[in-house]
Amino acid sequence: MAAEGDRVATHYFACLDPAYHGWRWAVTVARASRARNVTVDENVLLPGGDALLAPDWVPWTERLRPGDLGPGDLLPTPPGDDRLVPGFTDALGEDSPLTDWELGLGRARVLSLIGRDDAADRWYSGDAGPHSPLAHAAPMQCSTCGFYTGLVGSLGQVFGVCANEYAPDDGRVVSADHGCGAHSEIVLPSAGSEPPPPIVDELGYDIVHTQGSVDETAAEPLGHS
Fold first, then answer.
1. d(CA 213, CA 216)
2. Which of 88, 116, 187, 197 has its Cα between 20 and 30 A from that of 146?
3. How many angstroms separate the CA atoms of 204 and 187, rounded?
4. Could you tell me the residue ranges of all domains in the chain?
């Protein structure tokens, strides 16, 4: 029981329903001045310290993750999205054949500096960047590959698109210092080339004489006198 005020108290009772483990009933009663009987004010079910609770509600815009958008789904972009700016501002300051088309006749909004930097950080630190296991195992970088096609504008200084249908990143944005095993300049050894000599570690094993082997340290047999 907990006193809530003058002639007001709350009584707690354990909830016996197995679906509400750790919850308890709270019954608040009150007594008017000079009255002999109490009155029930409210009766609610409240969670206790070990009650199972649902996670805090998060708006769907914050729950959305890359790859969640499916066919037919619509994802509205908020008007104040800092990744975009009006098309006539030319925030990136890049010459493009689409510039005239964007000045009032094309896209209402274009990529902002914030949107460009966010995309660059996401691409560079992802699987298509230089720190992925695929890039670490690659013999050469994408910047020297004939299938690497650079992007236009400032992003093209660091990123391009892979155009090799046999590469794992075909049709995807990759960094110039990314790499894979499908590099255009990888040359397989010719069939007539001799394999390199085997590398023998003479310190990693012991020589053991088998039966019938010649013991060089054995003494020569004595002749008959």
1. 9
2. 116
3. 34
4. 2-47
